[in-house]
Amino acid sequence: MHPRTLLILSTAATVLVWQLPYGRQMLYPLTLLATYAHEMGHGLTALLLGAQFDQLLLHADGSGMAVWHGNPGRIATALIAAGGLVGPTVAGITLLLLSRSPRFARAVLGTLALLLTVSMVLWSRNSFGAVFLMALAATLALAARVLPDTAAAFLLHLIAATLCLSWFTDLDYMFSAQAVVGGVAHPSDSAVIANALWLPYWFWGGVVAVFSLAVAALGIATLRR
N or C: which end of the chain has fewer CB within 10 A? Predict the structure, then answer.
């Protein structure tokens, strides 16, 4: 099956399930995966900019937190905050590009399972997050082993489509000054960017939303070639 057809079917399935009465509960594992990509975006950006990535926390309510420390400067602090906002979109497009051929889908699923396991060992520090990452890694590893190429490609595209579309569900967060993580209020990523630089948080929320849309469109256009 052509990658574009798989992408269309996966995107349609994601949007359709979201509209069902218990759609968000059905996509709960993928919602947590999007949160994982968000927090890993913070953590990996922190590492790239010379800070320390201490721990990754995932909570049952779908929220999460990347704990890092260092004094990388105002611009770097803003980039670390932005790294989480664009993380799911970048991860989704990367998965799409890596799975342009269905025959590589199982290898990509296996690699994703390995990356989840490594990140769990290195950074996961709460029991819920560790159990979720282990269970998801085991599921993806099993899928990579038993699914035929086309089914593995559809699953991979479903994951990628959910990650790419997750920023739509986070629009209220992008344009908020605070977020509740594990029952505790924290400044939103947009507010962190605004505090580190200038202009209000809603401006940076808009910048990130436009950037995420542009990245998604560019990745999909590349996939169609």
Answer: C
Q: Which residues contact 46 (CB under 8 A, 6 or more apart)?
A: 52, 53, 66, 68, 70, 72, 80, 83
pTM: 0.87
- Taking only the tens place, the pLDDT of each residue in 17-47 is 655 666 666 778 888 988 999 999 999 999 9
| Phi, psi angles (nearest 5°) of residue 213 | -65, -40
More confident residue, 172 or 192: 192
Residue 65 has pLDDT above 80, yes or no: yes
